[in-house]
Each structure stands twice: as C-alpha cells, then as structure tokens.
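Quick one - inputs below.
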Amino acid sequence: MPGGDDGCLDPRDGLVALPAPRARVHAWLALQAHAAFDPVAARAALERSGGDPAAALRALGAGPPHAVLDAAALAAACAALVRVGARLLPYGAALYPARLAALADPPPLLAVRGDPRALGGPLIAIVGARLATPYGVGAARTLARQLAGLGFGIVSGLARGIDAAAHRGALDGGGRTIGVLGCGADRVYPREHEALAEAMSAAGAIVSELPPGAAPLKMHFPLRNRLISGLAEAVVVVEAKAHSGSRITAEHAAEQGREVLAVPGPIDAPTSAGPNLLLRDGVAPALDASDVLRALGRSEEAEAWLRRRAGARAGADAEAALAPEARAVLAALRRQPATRDELAARLGWTPAALAAPLLALELDGRVAEDRAGRLRIVPR
Amino acid sequence: MPGGDDGCLDPRDGLVALPAPRARVHAWLALQAHAAFDPVAARAALERSGGDPAAALRALGAGPPHAVLDAAALAAACAALVRVGARLLPYGAALYPARLAALADPPPLLAVRGDPRALGGPLIAIVGARLATPYGVGAARTLARQLAGLGFGIVSGLARGIDAAAHRGALDGGGRTIGVLGCGADRVYPREHEALAEAMSAAGAIVSELPPGAAPLKMHFPLRNRLISGLAEAVVVVEAKAHSGSRITAEHAAEQGREVLAVPGPIDAPTSAGPNLLLRDGVAPALDASDVLRALGRSEEAEAWLRRRAGARAGADAEAALAPEARAVLAALRRQPATRDELAARLGWTPAALAAPLLALELDGRVAEDRAGRLRIVPR
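Output:
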C-alpha cells in the first residue's frame, strides 16, 4: 500500500489523526492486541485518555506499547497488513463509522481493506446459516441485489452459505458490500472465498477488529456478529436453525436498536426454524426489499418500489407476449434508432420480412418514425 | 333418516322448536329459498316476527310459503335432504351454533349431515388454495392433526388442496371436522370427495345454508367462507396466491373478530404469497398448534404443548439410538409384560439371544422385572 511513514498507515486518508508517527501506530496496534476482546474497557480507557492509545494502554495497566507488542511483533503485524493493502481506522478518527462509535462496545481499532468510507453509508446486514439450502441462498442473493438497487450496501460475515450469497447479490446489483471478518484482516476464511473477498475490497470493504494474524476461532464470531449488526441500520435473518448464532445476532441487533427482519420459510424446514421463530416473536417478515424500507420508516418509498416492480413486470410480460420477430425488431432498435433499410440490414432480413412485424409494432404504439425517417422505440 | 312428521326433520333432536308440523318445515325451507342470499334481511325479518319463518316471509314481502316453494318443490327438497340423512337447524334453535348466531348475517337455516352439536364445539378453520403444493398439503394436514389432538374440531370448505388436507388431518388425529359446502347439503363438490364427506359426517358434520339442490356456483363461495370463519375461533391460512379468496376470507374473519394466522412459506413461491403478505400485514405466523393456542390467549397451554412435544421427540430420539434388538424387545414388551421365557418365545429368539439386549435395557432403566418375575417397561 502507498505512502505512510511506517508502512502500514496512509496519513493522506485521514485514517488516523495526523501526525501519525510510527510510535502512534505502535500504540494503536498494541491497544488492539491488548484490548480487542474487551472493547468496553478499551473505549473507557481511550475516553479517559483523550483518545491517546498509549495513555489508554497505561490506564488499562498494560504498560508501554513495546511491553505488549515488541519490535518484531510490530513489524510482523505491519507487514501482514501491508501485504493485503489494509489500512487502520482507529476509534475517534473522522472516518470511524458513526453507528459503531455509538455502540457501548466499539472496537478500538479497525483494519480495513478497500474503501473505509463504505462503512459509513446506508447499510443493511444479511445473515444466516453456513449450511443453507438453495432456497436460502437464492433469497439472500435476491434481497441483497434488490437492496443494492436501492442504494444500500450489504454487510455480512463472508462465511459460506447465506453470507456469501448476500455479498454476491450486492455485487450482482452493482452495490457496495462489506465483509466483517472473525479473523485478522490479513486472512480470509474460508479460503475458497479469497476471490470473493478481492471483489468485495474493490466494491466496498473487508474489515476486522482482530489483531493481524488472528485465526478464525469460534469465540471470535459473537464479537464479529455485533459489528455486522452494529454497522447496519437493519438486520435480515435468512436461514438459521432454531438454536443458532443468527438468532443470537438478531437478539443483539435488537438490543443495539437495529431493526430486525426475518425471511419466512417452510414450517417443516429446520433451516427456516430460526427466522420463523423470530416471526413468532414479532419480528417483521422480509418478503422483498420493500419490507426493509418499511422497517426503516420509509413506507412511501416501499410502496413506490413495489409499484415500480409491478410496472416492470407488466412491461416484461407484454413484451414477452409479442411475436418473436417483433421482439427481435425491438431489440435491434433498442441499440440505436435506424431507417427501415438500416434496420433490415441490422437484422439480416429482407425489407419484405421486416414489414409485418414493424407494422404490428407501429400499430401497437411501440415504434414510431421520427422526422428524419428513423424508426425509434416509443418510451412507455 | 329417522322419525319426524314430515320426512326431513327429527323433532327428537330438538333441531327445530317443537312442535314441528309440516307447515313449519315448509316455511323454513321457503324462507331459505327466498332469503339464503340475503341473510341480514332474513335475520331482521325473523327477529321482527318472533322467530316465526312464515311471518318472516310475509315481512319480506314474499307472501305465504307455498308462493315461494310449491308442493312439488317442497317434496323434492325434503326428499333430497332425507336421501343424504341431513337434518335442519333453524336460526333460533337451541343447537344453532352460538358463534354463528352472533354474526350480523347468520344463515336463517342450516342443513346438517352428521352431528349438529359438532358445530358448537371449539373449532379452528384451516383454509387455503385448491391448487396447493405438497408443502401446503403437508402443513395443513399436520396442523389439523396437532389441533385435533388438542381437542379442536377443524372447519374448512371440503375443496381440493388445503381444505381436504385439513379435514384429513383432523380425521388422522381422531378429531372432529366440519365441511361447509358452497352447494346444497344433498350434494358433494368436488365429487371425488364423496368418501371424505361420508367419513366427515361420521366424525363431525357437513353443513350448508344453501337450498337443497343448489349447485356449487362461484358466487356461493364468499357466502360459504363467512360461515367457515364464523364457526371458528381462529382462521389459519395455509397456502394462497397474493390475490385470492383465502386472503379475502382472512379479512372477513378479522372483521368477524376471529383470530387470523398464516403459515409462512418460501418468499419465491406464488402459493405462499398470500400467507406471507398476511404476515406483512401483522397477522401471527402459524408454525404449529401452539401458535393457535397463543392467538386464543392460551399461552401457558401453548408452552406446555411445546414442552410435551420436545419431550416426546427426545424420547423417540433416545429409543431410535438403541440397538435394533433392544428396540424389538421394547416393542414386544409394549404389547404386554412377559417373563423371560414368554418374551423369548414372543420374539422367536433363544434365551441366550435375549440376554444381551435385555441386560442393556435393564441397566438403562427402561425395563424392570416385577415381583411376579414379569418384565415390564418402566414408565419414563
């Protein structure tokens, strides 16, 4: 990664308060190593210390930074972060996401691959089981794509199953997506998601509060899950067993003040027991993106989205009902208006073959000739 | 059918107020023929006329009974009802179901095959699409069986799909079930449900407010649906399209003050769009029978039912984990306690073959020898 006086920070990004001498980076990484698993204490110490990580370390009784992270460990941590292009975003920085800062237990330090600004945008979390069914994978991907189309970024945990489907759906929809890791930012777990993680850092961010090199231990995941819901405005649970991490995430999300939604599924499917039980507890169902808008109090936008979708479907249905020749003419004109001769040439048809489908489209009001004699699609 | 002075009423059942002379039956059938499609007017006329159907007919401007139903039509109606063993239950009779009498539009006259007392018990309606999926059919049947086990009768419309599955589930569970017809009580629609209808009249009732001979016309079904929900304490919608009769039934049921529940299903299944949209509108999800109890304000019974089910499953799981020989021994002893020799003979095993599985069951506390030397299953 570019610039910086220490190999693992780029002061031009404002990711840490300037000046960012090597000592300050050392202090942040030492605080992370010491207190990443006790973020409440770290936050309190930072606030008592005016945001100075070295002072916070002393307040926590950990001594100076080099007592926590010696020179070799510091060099290794920085090298690991540099290798994956990660940057550091400490608590208190201007770009530190406001929704995380408002939690009782914000991470003292985030390592971010990709664009740290993505963490502060409008985000929806989509979570669920690793052992998902094709139904759950499809539902997660569709919801994520719909939400991306509405300008939401999608947060999830980069796990197999629902998480990966949610990230992919956001990418399908041309949106941003954020993966929160249960391991150090220099690792990707599971390994098979390395290409997905690359695509995500290019279209959003991969983020971790854990020290570089941290393994994906089971104990990390509850901590990780509070960040997934903490970053988002709402959390959608797609597929999960009755007693599962996703249901716990939903409870924590509600405690964080996040809207929680659940995707209904068959009452005889163990993978839908989690969301269905959330529905029993009064959580709103997520049938499509409009439910998320509604949960956020944006009911008019929800209704407008449903109307747009119904309109698009009706249009697609009407076009699908046309003869194949007429559909071919529309497709050719969609690329560019054309005279009759140009159109026949574009299609590779004789002018005689063009006549009937074109007449049908003109009578139907779908195609009209402009003053220059070019055929154009009439906007509907 | 037995008794009666007119061939279609049995005064001993108290189904009409005594005395029930032929003239009174004539008046009820004439009122039904005149006013079955305007039950609000029929009720008002009956109440103004002190419950006398002939006076109600006059109040409705229909003239005397023979002006509405001539002698030949009366004889035909009675013969049709007698042929299927139907009895008449007029508005105001002691056995007329209280929940129907409390509606704004109770039917003036019901024809009942089976036990009219079944109409007054605790009833749950289960409704849904004719074109149901295997998922919906299974869910309806399971819910009906669970509810029958809790002492509820199941009301539905005897249609293909969800209705038939609900009736069958109630029969599976040894419960009562009630079919409300959209045609005269002397007919069964669809014809393929004639055997089901027979079984239902033996374990509940088939009921219609329509005149004998009435065909299953589309216009009858909204009327019929108000009786399905009107008879029940709660209505469960299983599978239905987004714009469907079942959703309208749910709306009417809510207007009647009935609890409404919906069975969640996949968000990409058109057959689950109806119930899922009801969930969006705030209707409670029906995952199992406990949700119905909860909707009726019987939360403690709901929790007790869930605990019993969890206990039964744990027991079944533990038994399934036993060796096949041990399971065979348990099955043999479940029929009747036995000495070791009797048990070996019952299983067709040598005493030596019996020794190991029996010892395992004794050590596990599942089987014990009583004072008479007979092996018995230990109640758990």
